[in-house]
């Protein structure tokens, strides 16, 4: 049955080509090297399968029962012409950043003892996304979210530093990306504390040895 529906989806996706900014039912919506849409048509949710493949599956599983589709984005901001630009509205200020797939569904990016990690909403960070991603500190200074591109592994650690070295952060719809080059895959890796996950930008298929990691994209909760 899946083969039939998948074939239909493939034909649909072929027929609609670049017009469709969202992946069709059963269509691919992520994975290493994937440059197509990362959100799904209404009623379907982008579900991680493996490093190479995420697929739009019906929202019938018990994990997602909210009435609002979590990955719906404004059509204008996912159109190919604006694919690598920051959304045209006001600079998001005071925005939470969260994951939307298990096992970190609605875990929020935050400063946990100097490390950027995904954790509980109660301690969520509120970020300003504008080329840099910054976090206000109570002292009045800022911390900047950087990708450590010196890492020799395909997964690049994220750090919070006093100066910004990663200045190509952007938004594609509600999805946090880097724009040069365009990258939107992250991995979330379990830590000894079940409330917190380490987050890495994933540019290949290495994973930290011994860690349980899942491919993730990270999002603003709303286009605000
Ligand atoms: C997940 O990937 C495996 C290996 O590529 C494949 O056999 C399987 O059909 C995929 N599952 C889904 C739901 O796409
Ligand atoms: C951070 O501080 C700046 C002023 O330095 C302010 O304009 C901005 O709204 C603050 N952002 C957040 C998320 O509180
Ligand atoms: C970045 O990664 C390199 C190589 O692993 C390491 O030596 C360096 O300390 C890291 N820098 C930061 C800021 O974490």
Automatic annotation (TrEMBL):
Record-level GO BP terms: carbohydrate metabolic process
Region entry Disordered, spans: 67-95
Molecular functions per Gene Ontology: cellulose binding
SMART domains listed in its UniProt record: fCBD (SM00236)
Keyword annotations of the record: Signal
One GO cellular component term noted in the UniProt record for this chain: extracellular region
Domain CBM1: residue ranges: 21-57
Pfam family, one: CBM_1
Signal peptide boundaries: 1-21
Highest taxon listed in the record's lineage: Eukaryota
Identification of the protein by name: Carbohydrate-binding module family 1 protein
Species, as recorded: Macrolepiota fuliginosa MF-IS2
């Amino acid at each position: 049955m899946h083969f039939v529906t998948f074939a239909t989806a493939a034909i649909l996706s072929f027929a609609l080509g670049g017009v469709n900014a969202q992946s069709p039912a059963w269509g691919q919506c992520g994975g290493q090297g994937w440059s197509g849409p990362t959100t799904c048509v209404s009623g379907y949710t982008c579900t991680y399968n493996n490093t190479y493949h995420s697929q739009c599956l019906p929202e019938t599983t018990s994990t997602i029962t909210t009435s609002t589709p979590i990955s719906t984005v404004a059509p204008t901001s996912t159109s190919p012409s604006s694919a690598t630009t920051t959304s045209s509205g006001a600079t998001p200020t005071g925005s939470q950043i969260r994951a939307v797939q298990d096992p970190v569904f609605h875990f929020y990016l935050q400063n946990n003892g100097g490390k950027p990690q995904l954790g509980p909403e109660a301690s969520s960070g509120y970020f300003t996304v504008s080329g840099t991603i910054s976090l206000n500190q109570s002292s009045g200074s800022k911390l900047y979210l950087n990708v450590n591109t010196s890492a020799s592994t395909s997964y690049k650690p994220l750090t919070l530093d006093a100066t910004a070295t990663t200045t190509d952060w952007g938004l594609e719809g509600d999805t946090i990306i880097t724009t040069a080059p365009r990258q939107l895959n992250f991995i979330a890796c379990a830590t000894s504390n079940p409330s917190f996950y380490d987050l890495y930008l994933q540019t290949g298929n290495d994973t930290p040895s011994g860690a349980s990691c899942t491919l993730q994209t990270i999002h603003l909760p709303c286009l605000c």
